[in-house]
Amino acid sequence: MQTEPIPILVPGNGTVLAGRVYGQPADPAVRRPVVLVTGSWLTVKEQMAHVYAEALAERGCTAITFDFAGFGESEGAPRQAELPSRKIADIGSAARFAATLAVSGPSGVGYLGVCASAQYALAAIAAGAPITSFASVAGWFHDPATVAPFYGGIDGVRARLDRARDAVARYRASGEVVTVPAYAEGDERAAMFLSLDYYADPARGAVPEWTNAMAELSWWHWLGFDGLTAASRVGVPTLLVHGDDCVFPGNVESVRDRLTGPVETVWSRGGQTDFYDRPEQVERAADAAAEHFRRTLGAGDA
């Protein structure tokens, strides 16, 4: 019988991150595949990360979720700032912490990234994070050229960079963090302004723990990030779960082709946010991920 997740503190990159451990049973002496799980940009551990952590725990893994610095219950300033380099550092810190746990055993630590955190995990592995097996679910991997059309091309990018410049100046002058909605349909100042039921529905992603806000100073960091080139420096066993109706299928194929280690691709049906919590997509992705981690990290002592 699966137990309730256990709250933990994860030593971060100069901060303390709030985490949870999911297991069956939650016994720190029972070795099972240990997998860190994180979700999309601007989200917290109670959203898609929780869904996949529960699913992996049901399949015999020990799953650990955490809030990135500046989000949710974790420490860190500025708040609500999507800073890829900060998130990459947090992933490295969380992986080093997980590797010290007896439950992880000698085979190392796995990582499952949903949507945008997949590109951050890839970069963290390339930078030396002690992650020995990786899975991406509906992974968002972008570079400046491929992300720009989401925001109306170069004119939309420039407008956002101008607002980010002003937001940085206000933060440096007074410490004020200027925010816009993380999600608001039709509001082009919002981080996400297309119709996305996941972020609007309290039964899905609009959970009480989530703050619907993005620090406007984030734009330069987000729009300027390269989530593709790190793949050529990653040789750990990798699983890519994606589909034609998810974001950037061509970029996922590019990542696959650049990886230097063994890679398996599972092409599935469903749109991007279907993979966040819809049973059909979650079940298939979790089945594939659990098998991947059992094969690459070992079945443990269970």
Automatic annotation (TrEMBL):
A GO MF label: hydrolase activity
UniProt domain Xaa-Pro dipeptidyl-peptidase-like: residue ranges: 14-243
Annotated Pfam families: Peptidase_S15
The organism's place on the tree of life at top rank: Bacteria
Protein name: Xaa-Pro dipeptidyl-peptidase-like domain-containing protein
Organism: Prauserella shujinwangii
